[in-house]
Amino acid sequence: MENKSHALAAGLFVSLVAMITLALASWLTRDAGIRDTYEISTRDVVTGLKEQAPVRLRGVDVGKVAHIGFDPLQQGNVLVRLEIDRGAPITRGTYATLGFLGVTGLAFIQLTDDGKPAPRLEADGGQAPRIPLQPGLLAKLESRGEVLLQRVDEAAQRVNQLLGDANQQRFATTLDRLGTAAERAGALALRLEQTTQSRVDPMLAEATVTLRNVQKNADEVGRTAADFSATARRLNQPDGPLDRMAEGTEALSRAADSFNNATLPRLNRVSEDTSRAVRALGRAANHINDNPQALIFGAGSVNPGPGEPGFQAPATGGR
User: Fold this and answer.
1) Which residue has the higher pLDDT, 286 or 169?
2) What number of helices (H) and strands (E) belong to the chain?
């Protein structure tokens, strides 16, 4: 009896723990807040998307996937029903894409919009509002996969043509010719080096002689510069030639000032006297030209003019 009672107690304890665990899990996973239902209808493949998969708006969890099935209104479309928090800003510009969680292959619904102001997406006619699903990265790759494979096939065919037997033979011939050209270029470079060396040695000797001559000329220039420096020092010594020349210049300046102040006025007076004498001599010459006999008989008396005593008017012819 004791064994049966122990087994019964253990069973009751396990059942109680299981019920508590289920209640705690249900409480932890309960939905908080009010959620609205939205739908996505698409003909794209939704591989990796499961029920209870998260729904994210710009990376923020706003709901979950409630159901995945086929759309009864559009044959062949997949219908995904979403439960999203009522506070999430779902507008008419909101669209959905499939995102993937790392390398697990599990998908989730990523919601985003174009960033433009738009009215909130509401139910129309009692039916849950539908959010358009745009193709994601994998869908785009799948749609363009045939084109990519075709281009890869064309590239492979061109590579095969390029690496064909005929082209390989041409490559081998070209490599042989390049090797021969490289050998000839090496031999030519060696000959040029030898020729250059044979021509450079005499030029180096001539350059050495030229440098020696330049050195001699530089020494002579240095000595000339030293002599010129000594001469400049002698000229610049106190009471030297430059100082004496400056004193002579000052004396000459003083003499010029004295000449301007005393001699020039006297010369001006002499010049004026000479000018008056020349004018008087000119008048005398003119008088002699008019009356040459004055040199022999003298100038004579001068007839009185009008208004002077003894003046007589010249006689005029009568009728």
Assistant:
1) 169
2) 6, 6
Helix, strand and coil content of the chain, in percent to the nearest 5, comes to: 55, 15, 30
Residue 318 predicted with pLDDT over 50: no
Neighbours of 261 (CB within 10 A): 9
Q: How many CB atoms lie within 10 A of CB 251?
A: 10
Question: Three-state SS across 57-73?
Answer: ECCEEEEEEEEEEECCC
- Helix H or strand E encompassing 147: helix 137-162
- 85 beta partners: 35
Domain edges within the chain: 31-135, 242-281
Supply the pTM of this predicted model: 0.39
Give the integer Cα–Cα distance in Å for 299 and 291: 8
**Longest distance between any two alpha carbons in the chain, whole Å:** 214
Interatomic CA distance for residues 51 and 270, integer angstroms:
140
